[in-house]
Amino acid sequence: MLVLGFESSCDETGVALVRVPEQGAPQLLAQALHSQISMHQAYGGVVPELASRDHIRRVLPLAREVLANSNTALAEIDVVAYTQGPGLAGALLVGAGVAVALAAALEKPTLGIHHLEGHLLSPFLSADAPEFPFVALLVSGGHTQLMRVTEVGQYEILGETIDDAAGEAFDKSAKLLGLPYPGGPHLARLAEGGDAAAFELPRPLLHSGKPDFSFAGLKTAVLTQVKRLGEAPTEQQKADLAAATQAAIVEVLVKKSLLALKTTGLKRLVVAGGVGANRLLREQLNAACARRGVRVHYPELSLCTDNGAMIAMAAAMRLQRGMAVLQTGPDAGGFEV
Ligand code: KG4
Ligand code: ZN
């Protein structure tokens, strides 16, 4: 069975083709991705209208690329999967619209996938795929959650952020430091030459005893420091503040992940979402988990941020388990924003 997947929830247009074998792990046959980051950079963030328009421009050429690279004819596709939400309404509509139209033309069903389930299952695209059950740390631009994952579709939220997401904390702090959008990777790079001890920043809810998060206060503290540094901070001061910000976010993420592992008694941790690409987070989680006999799984670096492969993969895993709610005809194409 072949699944073609579309992702268009925010500023990345992704298309991928996954083969679902009778037995064994689904295989990624081809994928294509277009990032709109450079287009939105001038505005300091994603402009929804521009995002939708660019998805419209990119989606069909990307789909053609995937089919050509995998030597697959359109008629061979069995299921068309797409991100049904959450995300930007206009952006989601493009992926959903194309998926539903394609499926209707092929007389094949569609399968709407929750964007976060795509992230959550993205480590299954790597050679070293995890086994169920595991604790998942989902850290993206819009979400920060710890979950107990028993099987596909069995997700118990153990804790989440009460305000900003970890990615948002990275991006907003980066903006205050004058870095381009999306700030996470830029802040991480700047932090490499910085001394995290040069600034004292809060770690909200660190000792709450629960796997919950709060990052809004950190952003305010960074703003206070930026103001204190005045109009012309030195490069070293900026690097130090970036390092302190990153250290604060990472410390909270590591500590809460360990708490979730302890309370569930699970010995496997899966990290997913854009912030999962952060090197300091990976280093500190690896070290802390190694001491506790916990295995940590990550998606491949290129699959941490939004992509079509994770959507096709999540659809494939649902199909394999007979739990996919396939839609055809006028009911197809449901989505949520
Ligand atoms: O998962 P994702 O692509 O989009 C959402 O679904 O939100 O995550 C994007 C987020 C952004 O906030 C970005 O700054 C952050 O992931 N990010 C990073 C790094 N790479 C991406 N944050 C910290 N360090 C990184 N290396
Ligand atoms: Zn995402």
UniProtKB/TrEMBL annotation:
Organism taxonomic ancestry: Bacteria, Pseudomonadati, Pseudomonadota, Betaproteobacteria, Burkholderiales
Keywords per UniProt: Acyltransferase, Cytoplasm, Iron, Metal-binding, Transferase, tRNA processing
Residues where substrate binds: 138-142, 171, 184, 278
Compartments where found: Cytoplasm
Keyword S-adenosyl-L-methionine part of the UniProt annotation: no
Gene Ontology MF terms in the entry: iron ion binding; tRNA N(6)-L-threonylcarbamoyladenine synthase activity
Superkingdom in the source lineage: Bacteria
Cofactor binding mode and count: Binds 1 Fe(2+) ion per subunit.
Keyword Cytoplasm: yes
PANTHER family named in the record: TRNA N6-ADENOSINE THREONYLCARBAMOYLTRANSFERASE (PTHR11735), TRNA N6-ADENOSINE THREONYLCARBAMOYLTRANSFERASE, MITOCHONDRIAL (PTHR11735:SF6)
Any single GO CC term annotated in Swiss-Prot or TrEMBL for this entry: cytoplasm
Cofactor: Fe(2+)
Domain (Gcp-like): residue spans on this chain: 27-312
GO biological processes: tRNA threonylcarbamoyladenosine modification
Biological role: Required for the formation of a threonylcarbamoyl group on adenosine at position 37 (t(6)A37) in tRNAs that read codons beginning with adenine. Is involved in the transfer of the threonylcarbamoyl moiety of threonylcarbamoyl-AMP (TC-AMP) to the N6 group of A37, together with TsaE and TsaB. TsaD likely plays a direct catalytic role in this reaction.
NCBIfam families: gcp_kae1, T6A_TsaD_YgjD
Protein name listed in UniProt: tRNA N6-adenosine threonylcarbamoyltransferase
Record's catalysed reaction(s): L-threonylcarbamoyladenylate + adenosine(37) in tRNA = N(6)-L-threonylcarbamoyladenosine(37) in tRNA + AMP + H(+)
EC number, as in UniProt: 2.3.1.234
Entry similarity comment: Belongs to the KAE1 / TsaD family.
Organism the protein comes from: Roseateles oligotrophus
